[in-house]
Each structure stands twice: as C-alpha cells, then as structure tokens.
Amino acid sequence: MWSGRIASYVKQKTPLQRILRGFSQVAKTKTEAEGSDINLIKVGQNFHGFQVKDLKDIPEFRITAVCLVHEKTNAQYLHLYRNDNNNVFSINFRTTPLSSTGLPHILEHTVLCGSTLYPVRDPFFKMLNRSLATFMNAMTGSDYTMYPFSTQNYSDYKNLQRVYLDAVFRPLLKELDFMQEGWRLENVDVTDIKSDIIIKGVVYNEMKGVFSENENILGQKLQNLILPDHTYGVVSGGDPMEIPNLTWGDLKKFHVDHYHPSNCRFFSYGNFPLLPSLEYLNNEYLSKYTVSLTSHTQVPKQKRWAEPKTEQISCRFDRMGEPFEKQNTMSISLLLSDNTDVYETFLMQFLTELLIKGPNAPFYKTMIEPNFSGGFTPSTGLDTQPRDSIFTVGLQGLKKEDMEKVTKLFDETVDSVIEKGFDHQHIESVLHSFELSIRHETKNFGLHLLFGISAPWNHTEKIVPSLQVSQLIERLRSEIKNDPGYLQSAVKKENKHRLILGMSPDKNYEANLEKAEKQLIKSKTKSLSDKDKKAIFDKCTELQKEQQKPANVDLLPTLVIDDISDDVEKVDRVHVTLNNVQTQINRVNSNGVVYFKAVLNTNDLSQEDQMLLPLFCYVINKLGTDKLNYREFDSLVSRKTSGLQFSNHIADSLFHLHTYEPGIYLASHCLEKNVESMWEIWTQMFGISRLEDVQRFQMLVQLYMANLTHGIVDSGHVYAMQAAASLVSGSAYQVELLSGLQHISYMKRLIHTSNYKAMLDGILNIAKILFDKKKMRVALNISPDTQTDILRTYENFINNLPEHPKALTPEKETTYITGKVWAPTDAVNCQHHVLNVPVNYCSKSVLTAPYTHADYPKLTVLARLLQSKYLLRELREKNGAYGGGARLSPDGVFSFYSYRDPRSLETLDAFDNSYNWLKQKLEDGIKMQDVFEAKLGVFQSVDSPIPPSSKGCDEFLKRLTPDIKQRYRADLMTVDKDGIEEVADKYLSEKNVSNTGKVVIGPKSEKMDVSKRENEMWTSMTLPSSYASSRAYLSDCLNFLKSFSWLYNYSNTHILVKRVLLHFPCDWVLYFKNLSYEDLTKLLENNTEADCPNNLKTLLNDVEKLKPDCAVYSKPCKPKSIHNSGLSRKKLHEITSLAPLIDDVCRGNNVDSIIDIGAGLGYLSHLLHDNYKRTVLGVECSAEYVDLAYKNQQKFYPNSKNHVKFAQHYIDSNSSEKNNNFAG
C-alpha cells in the first residue's frame, strides 16, 4: 500500500511520538524469554556473516538493541530484544523514484505476486489465511518501501520470514502481474474486441481513490512543492495520469537497482532467537551477493531557498462538506531539521506541541479561537517522514477573503512567542504527556518502533539514539533550566524556506479529471492498429485465464491445528459494587499507570438528546467546569492525566438481534502519583451545573462540523458497510444515526438553524441527566501492588459523585433496548449515496444470527472463506478494486464490501453470486484445508495481543465473559464444510432476501442504471448533500415555500402587469437596481455583493441548500402515435423525455400504477400506457381539461379505458382517500 495509508500509522508523528504512543504489553514478568539467545551476543562477534557493531540497553522500554552489519554486502540489521511474545520482522529498502509513474508502489505490489521458491499467484494474500500473524502488510513511502509482519508463533514467524525474503529478493515479476497490479489497456467488455478500451489496474484505481480526498491532494502537493529537487518532488505512489507511462521493463530495472542487500535494512523485535534468522538470511540470500554502491538511492538535503514561495492549487468540491465558499484551505510550511539529527528533531516536535496543542497553545489562541475557519488541517504539525522535516500550520474551512489573514496571524504569533515565551504550566503539560507516554502500554509496540525509526534510519546507520527517549527529555529539561530563553531562541531562528500554499475547490474538478483521463486513453489508443488491438485483447484474455487458474497453495508453508491455543486468556479480575456503582477491577502489570473506564447508560435521554450525543462527547470536556474556565481546566487535565475521552457506546446484545445497550464511554489514565488529581478532574466534570460560554461553544461546533466529513473517501467502505447494515439491523441503524452518513446530514440541518444558545442548553441538559453515578459502571486496570491505595481513593471519588434517586441502575435488563428498521417484504432495500469521487464503495448486508447463536461461528468462518477464495479474485484481481471482502459483526450482520472499486452494480452482482459459487465449490473445489485456513484467519483477530490497559475490556464493554469466549472458541474449532453449507443456504440464499440491504457510495454514472434490476427497491440518495432523509428534505422544502409564497404565487409573465415588484422588500429593489445584467445573472449562482440584504442572502442560501442533484436523462421515447395536431414541439419534447424516466423509476421500485397530477389533456398519461402499459390516474383541477381528455381517449385511445382514467380534483388533505375512490 502507498504512504497515504502508512500515514494512518505514522502521519504527522515524529519517531519519538510513534515510539511513545505505541508502547506494548509486557508478555511475561520474567527477565528472559525461553529460547532467546540475547545473552550470547557481544560487540565485535561474528555470526553467520554478520558483525555485531553495537549493543545498547534502553531501560525505559526494557529493550536491548543489537546493531549488526553483513560483512559481504554492508546490509544493516537492527534487532531489538524485548520480552514480548508479539515478534516483528521487516525488510526495508530505500526507494527513490524520480518520476510519478508509481514505480516503487507498483513494484511493492508485484513482488508479492510470486517468487522463485513460492511460484504461487499472490502468495502474500494466500499466507493471510495460513498464518496467525497479528500484522501483515507492505508499504511504500516517499523514499522507502517496507515489508513488515508480526506474530506470536515462532513457526509462523519462520514461515512468513521465508515468504517475505523470497518475494523481495527473487520475485517472478511476470508481465501479467504487472498488468494486474499496475495498469493495462483492456476492453470494457472483455469478451468483445470491438468494445471501448479503458485503463484498469489495482494501483491505478487505488491512486485515483487516494486523490479523491482533498487532504491527500494538499499533503502531496505540499511535499512536492517544498522539496522539489529530488524524490520528494514526485508522487512515489503514482499519479494516475502518469502511471500509464510505466513499462514492465522499467519495473524490472528498478528492482535490480533498489532491491539489493546493500540498499537494505533488516529489522526484528521480540523474544524469538536472533541467530537462526541471521543464519537463514545469510545462507539463502546475502551470501550470494556482493557489495554494491548505493549512491544512486541516497537523498541529498534540500537546497534552502533565499525567499519564501506562494502557490495556489485546486481540489474537488466536497458535497458532504461545508458550503462551497467555505471550502478553501491555507497552509504555511517551513523546512526544519534533518531527521537524522535526533535531538534537534525532538526539540522541533516539542516546540510543535507547545505551539499547536490545546487551548493554551499560541497558534490555537490566534487561529482557532477567532472562529473564522474550520480548524487546523490534518497536515498541521511536524512531518518527519522526509529527510528534511516539515513544520506546517494549516487552516481549513476558510472563506477566500480570510485566506490572506492566515499569513499575518502566523507571523504575529511567532513574534509574540519570541517576545513573551511560553507559559510554564503549558511547558510542563507537554513534558508530562511525553513522560506518561513512556509508561502507557498499547499493543504491537514492535511495529510502532519500526514505524518510528524507519524514516531516519533510511538515511543514517546511527539509529539507536532515536530510541533513548529518557535521555532526550532529560537534556531538554536541563537546557530549559539553564537558559530560560532556550525555547524562544529555537523559535527565533530565521527561516526563508517557507511555502504558503492555498487550495480552493473547483466545481469542475471531477469533470476536468474525467476529461483528462479520456484524453489519456485517447492518446494511448489512437494510433493502435487492428493488430495492436488484437494483441491487447489476447493479452487480457490470457490474464483472465491466469486469474481463473487454481493456485497450488500446497507450495506455501502453513500452520497446523496444534498451533492454535485451546484456551482464552484469563484476566485476574473481580467484580464489586461500591456505593451503587458496579466496578470491575482488572489486576494487571500496569507499569505504574491507573486506567479508568466507565459507561454511562443513556436510556433516559429523549430521541432528540440521543441525536446530540456525538456533539456532546466532542465538546463537554472543552467547555470548562463550575470551578475552572476551559483554559485552566485543560491545563490541569494535561498536567495530570492523558486527557479525558468521551465517545458513543453501542454494545450489541450477545443473545438478541436488533438489541443494544446505548451509552457513552468515558476513559482516562494517569500515573499512580496523580490518581487523586484524576478523580478530582472527573468530579468537576460530573458537577457541571452551568454552561454559559456560547461563543466558545459555537467555535467548537464549527470545528466539529469541519472535521465531520474528513476521511469519508479514505474510509468509504466503512461508511458503505455501516449504511447497508442500518437497512437490516436495529442496532446498526442506531450506529448509523450517531456516526454515519445520517449523522452528518442531521448535524448539517441542526447547524443551519444557528441557534447555538439552545444547542448549548441541550448539551447542559444531557450532562445533568447523564452525570449520575447510578447510571455508571466502571472498570479499573491497576497493578496488584498498589491496588489497596488506588481503591481507597477510588471509593472516596465514587462517594462524592452526584446521584438521582429515580435513576436507572445499570444492572437492570432494561439497559438494553430493541431498535427497529423498515424493510420491504418483497424486495431488497438498496441505496445509492452520490459522492463526487471517481471510485465506488459497495456493500451488501445480510442479517443473520446473534453472537451466542450456534450459527455465528460458522458464519464467521464462511466470511473469511469467501473473502480469500472468491472475493479477492473477483473484486481485486479481475476487476481492479483495491480491496474487498466479507465480515461478520457482533450485531449479526454479514457484510460484503469493496474498496476503491471501479465498478458498482457488477460488484453487487458478485456479492449475490457468492452463494452460487460456494454451492458449486463445496461439491468439488473446497477442501477441509481451505476451511482450516479460514479458521486461522478468524483466530488472527480472536488472538490478537491485548495490552494491560485493555485487558478485561471485552467483558466490561460487550459483556463477553471468559466462559462465552471459551464456548465461541470451541465452536470455531469444530466448524466444518457441512456447517458452512448449512448457514450459507440459510442466510445467503434467496430464502433470506427480505433481510438484505445494499449500498453504493460513489459517483453518478450511466453504469448505475438500476431500472432493470429485479427484486430490488432503490433509493438514489441524490438529495442535497446536507440531507440523508427525504422526509427532512420535504419538510424543509415546504417551510421554504411557505416563507416565500409571496414570491412564486404569480406566473412569470405576470411579474410586471400584476405589479409583483410592489410585494418585494424595498431593500431588495434598491439592491437589484444597482446590479448590472451580469451581476443579476450571478445571483442564480448565489454570488452576492457585500451590501446584499440579509433576508435576500437567506433566500439564496436556502435555494442553494435545497437544490436537488438532478440526473441528466437523455433517452426520450418515440410515441407510437400522436393524435393531436395542437401538441407543440415543446410539449412533445417534455412528455417524450419524461415518460421513460417515469417508467425507469416505476420498474426500479416495482410500481405499476401512476397518479399524473396536473394531467392537463392527458398526453403524458396516454403515452405512459401506450408505450409502457402503465395504469394511470390523471388528476386535473380543470373540469374543461378533464372533459377534453376523455374525448381524446374516446376518439384516439378507446382500448385504454380500463387503464387510464381522469378525475377533476383539487389536491387537499383529503386527496388520498378521494384518489382511492377514483382509482376504484
């Protein structure tokens, strides 16, 4: 995968941050792991061609670092021994392309398509189901490519190590794999050589999806522009317009030049023995190479500019985001330290945190609190991925007129910091966050170490100092103590290498991209002869045949049943009730940290309050308390804890479908010495009785809204699965309301009212209802050694919390509620959410069984089996989607999904065909080994590492007790082919069609013609982007029409003769008189001058908000006969264009009868019956027209009397009953 996804692990974090925030579990308490050979290794020794260059203890992480160099090739090897069972191995190469054809990215994909030792199609994906890996992937950054994995099983470790090593050093690099993974010309209809030719390919489609996200456009352009001279000046992942310039020969040459041991860095971590890895690596691979020069891959430091530069770029208009005029972005970036200078980079990160983080930070005060933007951009911070680190402050959600002030505010803020320095408590809060992070333990520490050191290690051999965090903190404290102006002097350094980058939306952005892609295809195909086209067709046919061949997976290593543990991990826990509060105490090795988690039941909230919960969770810890204002409170929280976390909590019932526990989740942790301060902070939160700072609240709401739509494109498959699940599951529907597309639409409608005082009152009301200890249950993860003291302070804390006498107690069964969903009984409920991006995200959801049902383990294995054996080939290999699969969620929803998919309806058909494929393969294709491999895939997640901070959380949050988990584990082990066939027939066949929902998120397209799809009821969600509900949209339309009825109650031709202008507000008329003809025309586009009356602006804004996304329909029908010479050409065009659209809608929704309101003389009514055999009731208020319509029918359409009727009627509240009478 490309660095856009590496960013999800390492984005805007320095090596220090990534190391600190990724601290891992302590697997055992003893000092030495069984089988480790760390005590045999000394500096200067030689092992299997490697010389030990350095050996360092890093006590803060309980690590011993071993630095080795392979003597024959100069390959570097870093081993980090730690008594952690979750071991990591990685192979890193410095890859420095000088073009945007995506060379390293496509090579990363292609080397994983088969090797000399394992000549199997896509061994990487095949190994996903033959392993218990806790992580497997490959990633391409701007200047390096890495192949990491992690596992807790030593046999698995050796298996994956062999597959990875052979893949990178001896790949097959076949042309067909290059075509599949990179790009190819292919006929739209792969069976028709005469059909149009298009460009396809996994990476090609992936990068189209990547650059559908505006933040990715900004981040890529920022790096290209501020570091233009070498590899950072190009797109390493590939520009879709440049990818088709890459040749297979280029790919093979790049592998020779860059995938050499001399250009390689090997990494391992954990408690598995090191020496066997060194022996295998040397004997099988490195000994067969000689040293090679690597100067061609080195990245020089960027030459610094003499003057700052300013650039402006365009991006897509985000229809889900803020109004068009507020989708501008401005960023200011400075080139800072070389990332190989460990302390300087650490200092820059510390300064970045001081300048940006929280309401006491200078840039927050000057740029966020004035509330003229949508907050910081995701790229704000220090990016240490390039060799020269980049400091960025960016603002999103800007009006164009506000963009210039960003630069001024930036300079004024820096000048103020230089003059006044930083607040002492603010410095302490940032230092505290670093020190607490050293103690805090999360899962997969080894991977975080790897991600933390890879960028600087790419340019230096001296990487161990990056791990010595305590020394860095001690040096910084000493520098600050000895020189009070130390931090100010660091900020004061003059820097001319500054980039001011603006980005503005362009409503034609997608159209221009589509035009450019068509032109690219034309340039690739215009000179093709028939012979060339035949060669392309034949090559793609060959690729299809290759994709259909069964893979000989027996060549690949695999685990066996004995490698799977029989038992679940037992947590030392007790359950107590203290002063009406249920408390689960998990006794773990917490490394001196106290972890507090709580759930507050929200059943007492009204539905309106429930809808506000996501906003409540975002703002409630940022508004201050009765004792402290928001700045003082944030300072206290930052100096004593990790911060206060609030989030929605929907816990699915383990026993019943549609049933869930609603609540909010609270969490924080602190050093043991600060535990009483943490309780005091939570006591203040629970004691909030007033919230009065409306201005602060309004700013927070605007920040919340600006970030609400971020990531929809990058995580489109998640939104699609969630939306599809909400069509079949009551609990999933609640999740969709609180975090999905429906929540986005609800919040946009709410904000449109601009009644922030009322909203803040609603937030306070929620706090008063929820901050009640009788609604709370708690989990504490603490060390047994300090348990007595911690629990004493906790009990005092609980005793002082407020409680309401009539409050619901969490132990009652009524904490769970049952949700409802609407679904048609005779069709599949389907939705198309229109998003202006060039790729699709598709999902199909099927309601199955709850977690404790006997079918649930079988369905889990079935999902994994379909993903690995069917969906991977259908979606990715054959049709170019970047990803896809199937999964079963705890609410019993079986979900199919695709990611960055060039197809839509064809993908839904592939989902539907999974049952037929399975039935066929169960007879002659699927073996018990395939079922076993699917189980291995399931156990990867079941047995993933759990850090001390999260032990016991499954039971606390989901009620998943060890006994329930043990039964589920035992049932998983016994799943067989018969069980899989049973649940497939029960849930995936036509028998369960009424419990199915489908969703496509993607662009409007001719390919999305749903009119001919049978047994599906489609809703095209092409309402304005702020609406997900047609009911809400219709309500707002009616309110608008009521408010402005005086404006449209006259025909256009009467505007002068009826003196309509007299009804206009005087300030409107004066404003119109001063506008030119061109300015009047621009009013239709909501372009107004500064002196435009406010109520006119309101009208224009409402029109823009309510404007539907209308599809262009261009297939008028040909009437069989026209029997009225008075029918104008205009009317003829109207009815012949409208009739087929009506017919398509009727077929798509299984509608047979139509009411033609305002039928006039019946032209359209008769055409609908004459051409499409529809039954029509024409309703017309004019008795004269009704009489003429019947006369025309008698004369020209006598056979339609039983199918087309007319009624004289004026629509009112009783119309429904009357129309039924007419129809009867």
From TrEMBL:
Entry keyword Iron: no
Similarity comment text for this entry: Belongs to the peptidase M16 family. PreP subfamily.
Chain ranges of the Peptidase M16C associated domain: 503-750
Protein name per UniProt: Presequence protease, mitochondrial
Record keywords, A-Z: Hydrolase, Metal-binding, Metalloprotease, Mitochondrion, Protease, Transit peptide, Zinc
Main location per the UniProt record: mitochondrion
Entry-linked InterPro entries: Metalloenz_LuxS/M16 (IPR011249), Methyltranfer_dom (IPR025714), Peptidase_M16_C (IPR007863), Peptidase_M16C_assoc (IPR013578), PreP_C (IPR055130), SAM-dependent_MTases_sf (IPR029063)
GO cellular component, one term: mitochondrial matrix
GO molecular function, one term: metalloendopeptidase activity
Organism superkingdom: Eukaryota
Organism: Exocentrus adspersus
Cofactor: Zn(2+)
GO terms (BP aspect): protein processing
Subcellular location: Mitochondrion
